[in-house]
Structures are given as C-alpha cells and as structure tokens.
Amino acid sequence: MTSHNMTWISYPSKSQPFTSQEEIEAVIASQNIISRFMHCYIAFFIPTGLIAGICILIIFIKNHLQNKRASLDLLLLHFTISNIIMIFLSFTVIPRPDYLTVTHLACSVLSFFFNFGYFSSHYVLILTLLTLLLERFPQWTAPCKATQRPILCVVLVLTCTFCLSLAEAVLVGTDNYQLQAHCQLDPLFAWPAYEMVKFTFGFGIPSLLQILCFTALWAKEGPAGAPALQQHIRAHPAVYVTSVTIFICRLFYNVMILFRTTLKLQRSIGTTRNELVMNIAEIVLFCESCASLVIILFLYKPCKDEVLKVIQKCRRETRANNHLEIAETAPTHQNGSQ
C-alpha cells in the first residue's frame, strides 16, 4: 500500500524554493509557454468548439422534429454531448500556469465528470465505427441486429462509462478529502493505478477496437453490390477523420499519463519540463474535443447540408438587399438630373 500514500507528491514548479538561476529561468520559460498555449486554446478553440457543438445539437433536434433522423444521429448526438461536457470542464485550465485550488473531494468530483465525458466519447465513437462497418458487411447478422437498436447501445455505453468513471474516482484516493490541493482533471495525487486503468480502458482497448474496425474495413472485400471502399469512406468522412484525430491526440496524452505513472512508482516528482509537456498534452486533448465537433459539423452530411442551406440563404438575402439598394438609388439619380 506504499504506492497509495501520495502525500509526498507535488508539482515541480510548486515543490520548493529554487536556488540556482538555471532553475528559476526554467520555471519562468515553462510558465510562459503553457500560458501561451492556454490563451490560444481559450481564444480560438473553446468558442469554435462550443459554437460547433450548439449548431450540431440544433440541427439534430430540428431533424428529429421533422422526422429526418439519420441512422447515426443518435450516436453522434451522444458523442457531441460528451465533448461539450469536456469543453466546459476544460475551463479548469484558465488559471494556468497556476492550478485550480480545491479540496481533494471537489477534485475527485471534477475528475469523475471529466472521465465520464472522456470514456463516453471514445466508446460511442467505436460503436459508430462498428455500425458503419456492419453497414458495409450486412451478412454479419448477429452484430447487425445489435446495432439496429441504437438506444440500447447508447444505454450500454453510458452504463460502462459510469462504472469506469466511478472506479477512477475511487482510485483518485480515499484519504484526505478535506485537504486543499492543486487540481488537474487527472489529479496528480491519484494512485498510480488510476493512470494504468485510464490508459487501459480509455485508450488501449478503444484504440485496439478502432484498429480492428479499420483492418476489417480495408482487408475484407465487400459483398456483391456493396459500394467500393473509397465510396464508402467518402459517404462517412466525419466519422473516419474524427477517429484519426482522436487517436493521434489521445496517444500523446496517454503516453504522458504513463510517463507520469513511472515517475510516481519511482517516487520522483520529475522536472519542470515534464510538468510543461503534461500540461501541453492536457490542452491538446481539449483541442481534440473542439476539433471533433467542427469536423462533424462540416463533414457529417445532415449537418453539412444544413450549414450549406444557411450559407445559401444568407447569400440570397445579401443579393436581395443589394438589389433593393440599387433600385432605391436609381430614381434618386434620375430626379437629381432633372
């Protein structure tokens, strides 16, 4: 149980007074870099991601009311809500290069909701990939019947997500709930098992399932009459582009999570450089949530069609206004000439 005693751990930038000039300069440089990353994220990614997420929700609700429901709408609606939750929780990076100061209990609660969105978004994306795979190979009757009930699939994902998030909240630690601490959404003071479970169930297994789906899609020929592979991918670019984006961003983040676990097992707090890269990885993870929503808005066909309709409507209104202005100014010139 020695690994469960995390009272010794602290951030390198908060650990002790620095004596040498090099250490002070390293801390200042690290804080400047993370501050710039944070400001760029807040200025560009958060507004873009939230606007894209709200637009997707409006489009899905409108299509639902008009009975224009596509087969993937429910799954991507779940994915959108999960990413919006993560974007709202990403406001905890605003104090950077400092950290949010709350009790251990409050930090555990924040971590629970963060993990809920984190696990939920990845697992529902796997379910969406599986649905598209079975759309191409309808002869796999048993899995096809399961994916034809998307509400049941979503409930199953939510149940698994809740259980994993609850387990992670326990692994944050069950002691010292009343003490104040510097809080990240993946708390530094969590037990090493926290990061191991998160890597295994939040990245390792989902990424393996992603790879299997892509391998089956590329390696197996479609049945007679099925569209060509390129045509199938062009029909659903949003899901495949989002899958690649999630894999790349979460790979970087999870590598840093594992590295932090290694430091904990060695009873080392690391260096300010390690702290900097972990902070950058966290912001990259949040950027991925924003980027995924933008990808869905502009590449998922029902959303893209609505966006094009709005753009065309705005153009028509602009042209109509221009014609009205020209029509109003023409008689004025004629009267003036008389």
Automatic annotation (TrEMBL):
One of its GO terms (cellular component) is membrane. The chain crosses the membrane at residues 41-61, 73-94, 109-130, 151-172, 199-219, 239-259, 279-300. It is found in: Membrane. Signal peptide: none annotated. Its main location: membrane. Residues 52-296 form the G-protein coupled receptors family 1 profile domain. The keyword Membrane applies. It comes from the Eukaryota. Keywords: Membrane, Transmembrane, Transmembrane helix. The keyword Membrane applies. InterPro entries: GPCR_Rhodpsn_7TM. This is G-protein coupled receptors family 1 profile domain-containing protein. It comes from Ficedula albicollis (Collared flycatcher).
